[in-house]
Amino acid sequence: MEPDPATGSVVLGWRVERPDITSGVAVVDCHTHTYFSGDSSTLISQYVEEFHRSGLTHVFVTDHQSISAYPLLVEQLGRRVICGQEQRVAEGEVIGLFLNEKLPPGMRLRDASRAIREQGGVVYLCHPLDKKRFSVGLDDLMTSVENGWIDAIELCNSKSASLNPKVAEIAAQYNIGLLGGSDSHVASAIGSSGAVMPSFTSAKTFLESMKQAIPYGRHFDPPKSWPLQVVPTTSD
Questions:
Q1: Mean pLDDT of the residues in the chain
Q2: ∠ CA(145), CA(102), CA(35), 5° rounding?
Q3: CA–CA distance, 28 with 55 (Å, rounded to integer)
Q4: Taking the complete model, does pTM exceed 0.85, yes or no?
Q5: Ramachandran bin of 73, using left for φ above 0, alpha for ψ from -120 to 50, beta for the remaining angles
Q6: CB-based contacts of 85-93 (< 8 A; 24+ apart in sequence)
Q7: Could you give the CA distance from residue 90 to residue 194 in angstroms, rounded to a whole number?
Q8: 5 part of a folded domain
Q9: Hey, CA dihedral for 207, 211, 216, 222, is it positive or negative?
Q10: 107 inside domain
Q11: CA end-to-end distance (rounded Å), the chain
Q12: Domain range holding 103?
């Protein structure tokens, strides 16, 4: 992948190959959605089916402003599914991983970081510098990493049309883990981006394993087809 000299980004059609899988590693999609997000068409049954097809060992369900899908998924996937939430903040969007409770609305990034960590969660900055979406920009990204508000940064996001090398540069400079997530809004996208890392059993061991994580993925953003039984929601 060579970045476009005019934009600094890898252009449409980017791909980062998944490394070979060995024993004792986790393959995890850190950013997925169900119909509880309101803009996703994925039913619980479809999500489970695609998880089994994907080759993932773990998946974070990170609906917008909702954690309602998690108890439904954990009934079928057990500890392979982990509770998260994508939350809109003043500066853009951020994800809390390993959550126990829903995050409140109306926060700034600093306050969301504190709220996530108070639950024992991991602060994951999703799709930063993506100008086509409501994302954290460069100034706010630098402020966040300089103040230690971020635990991990998303390098590979399948809905992003390009891959920005600046994200990896900043993560390396501040010793922050790089991860990947499909940002799946249709079931078939689950697993299209993610990370390979040593196995983990908790938020604490995830933070340790994340230091060796290798993100992978590709641009994959198929159109949504709404099943008739879905009534989208954005609340619990």
A1: 92
A2: 100
A3: 9
A4: yes
A5: alpha
A6: 86/31, 86/33, 86/37, 86/62, 86/126, 87/112, 88/64, 88/134, 91/136, 91/137, 91/140, 91/144, 92/128, 92/134, 92/135, 92/136, 92/137, 92/140, 93/126, 93/127, 93/133, 93/134, 93/135, 93/136
A7: 26
A8: no
A9: positive
A10: yes
A11: 41
A12: 24-215
Q: What is the DSSP letter of 115?
A: H
What are the backbone dihedrals phi and psi of residue 72, each rounded to the nearest 5 degrees, phi first? -75, -40
Query: What 3-state DSSP class applies to 180?
Result: strand
By the 8 A CB rule, do 213 and 171 touch? no
Residue 83 falls inside a structural domain: yes
Q: What is the predicted pLDDT for the residue at 24?
A: 87
> Tens digit of pLDDT for each residue in 66-76?
999 999 999 99
Place of tokens 């879905």: 230
Q: What is the CATH number of the domain that holds 194?
A: 3.20.20.140
Q: Which of 76, 63, 20, 32 is nearest to 193 (CA)?
A: 32
Domain count of the fold of the chain: 1
Q: Which two tokens stand for residue 96?
A: 């809390």
Contact between residue 152 and residue 145 where contact means Cβ atoms under 8 Å apart:
no
Q: What angle do CA 75, 76, 77 make, to 5 degrees?
A: 105
pLDDT in tens, 81-123: 999 999 999 999 999 999 999 999 999 999 999 999 999 999 9
Q: Residue 96: inside a domain, yes or no?
A: yes
Cβ contact 124:156 at 8 Å: no
Calculate ∠ Cα 99-67-216, nearest 5°. Answer: 70
